[in-house]
Amino acid sequence: MCNSDFSEFPNIVASCAFNIIKDNYICKPGMVAIDAIADYCDELEMKHIYYTIPIFWEKLQGIEYENIIINWLYMVPISDKELEYIEEFGDEKFEELLEEKNVDVFDIYRKSII
């Protein structure tokens, strides 16, 4: 999710998807795609992509395919300091902080909350 005026976001999403496929890893809530934004636009404070469960569309359910559960994930832009916070305190504490600070997770131009 991102501001519609940021033209590189589709490329960032595609790169994240490509890397998941290429490296054959399971993407799940709480994971971070390091430098996913910085690779396309280094001047922004937001540098990485944080994966989380969609909270705005509660009816958006995952599906089961060949005994694998597939869920939809948000891609939230985060800063270096926010990444450090996640590494130190965990993704649950980070999400509590996002909610506490009422962060617009769609704003790639936002300031870091740390």
Automatic annotation (TrEMBL):
Residues 11-111 form the Suppressor of fused-like domain. This is Suppressor of fused-like domain-containing protein.
